[in-house]
Amino acid sequence: MQLTFPNGEHANVALRGEVIVGSRAGSRVCLPDAGLAPHHASFQRDRRGLWLRVPAGVHGVHLNARPVRRLAQLRPGDLVCLDKVRVVVRADDEPAIERRIPATAPVAMSEAQRVAAARVVLRGLSGQHYGRSYTLTEPRLIGRSASADIRLDDAGVAERHAVVELHADRVVLRAMGNDASLVNGVPVLDAVLSPGDQVVIDQHRFQLEAPGLPLRGQMDAAKPATTTHTQTMKAVRVPVARDPVPAPEPAAIEPPRKDPGALWWLIAAATVLAAALTALLVYAPRAGA
């Protein structure tokens, strides 16, 4: 990362080790005529990130228009004001901001898309909208107009300054006139925004929070073949079991066939038995004869 000075008080400074800014001779950034304290502030990187440190008793240090007393963590695009000296933090290898945007407004979202897209918000970092978050399920007009979705009550802001729109997998900043905005410290009219980007309009600063959206430089990455219904939720493939194969029906059991010959044998046997019993009763000797 590096420190840049938009008003030209000093050349850009690479952030290696501790960078002290003040009026003391020998400081990495020595500004004897800027009304700074000998050691007004320092910038230092460690494994946790980039930090702004303010010595005890020093006043007039602001981060994104918020006063800093001792310590604050910095991100690319942050604006640090040391009294009247403006310092912007920029990344060394940050890809260029894409300024080609869709020609038309986004299409209306379905209810399912609106639910998923509610996580994409523009959050106020400074100014009258500090701490507020605005979803982008609908295009948001920013300006001084009473009809603006994000109204900036500032004479230096146009009635209709810009619109922030959510287009599928990217967020677009669209200028409504010739007034530029700052995206990570870079003046732009139109721009494709990435997660973490800071947008500054006059003294008002916002940050884009968009979990799941591609970072800058990843816009042209290969997209999944399956079409999704939102930009923040991936399609889930659920295997569907095939219909079970019906079991073969059991073969019909035929009743045993009757043998006609056996029936005649039974009739004949019954006839012989009846004749034998008749003869026995007729010709048997009688008792007492």
Automatic annotation (TrEMBL):
Sorted UniProt keywords? Membrane, Transmembrane, Transmembrane helix
The UniProt entry, under InterPro entries, shows: FHA_dom, SMAD_FHA_dom_sf, YscD_cytoplasmic_dom
Segments spanning the bilayer are: 262-284
Question: What SUPFAM superfamilies does the entry give?
Answer: SMAD/FHA domain
Q: Does the keyword Signal apply?
A: no
Q: What sequence ranges are listed for the domain FHA?
A: 140-188
Pfam families of this UniProt entry? FHA, Yop-YscD_cpl
- Record's keyword annotation contains Transmembrane: yes
Protein name, entry field: FHA domain-containing protein
Q: Which organism is it from?
A: Arenimonas metalli CF5-1
